[in-house]
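INFO batch 0412 | record 1 of 1 | parsing
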Amino acid sequence: MKVVIIKYNAGNIRSVTFTLERVGITPILSNDPEVIRAADKIVFPGVGEASSAMKFLKEKKLDEVIKSLKQPVLGICLGMQLLCKSSEEGSTTCLGIFDVRVKHFSPFEGGACRAGDVSFKPLRKEWLFFFVR
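INFO prediction complete | emitting C-alpha cells
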C-alpha cells in the first residue's frame, strides 16, 4: 500500500510520518502531483494559518490535484480545515470538497468554548490557544 503525505510547508509532517512508521507504514513525503495521484491513500496534515497554506497550494497547483483525488484522503488539523469550503481565518476560500465554513471559536462565559462534548478552555486568559481534553 502506497501512502503519501502531502508536503506543503504547513507543520506537523514529521509527527505524522513517525506515527505511520510506528504502525508499520513507510509513507512517501511529496508535493509532486504525479506521486500524489499514484498513492493508494493520502494524508493531508498541517499546522498553521489557512490563507498562507492555500496560497502555497495554489502556487504549486496542489489545490487542483487535491480536488481531483478519488482515493481516501485523511485531513489532519489544518489539512482538514482546508478541505472545507472556507475559513474565517483570514477570510480564506479553501478547497471546497466539504460544503462547510470553518468558524472561529469565540469564548463563552468564563472563557470556555463548547463543541459537542468537548470543552475548550484557555490555559491563560492572554493566550490564543486552547488545551482540549
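INFO post-check: The two ends are 33 Å apart (CA to CA).
INFO record closed
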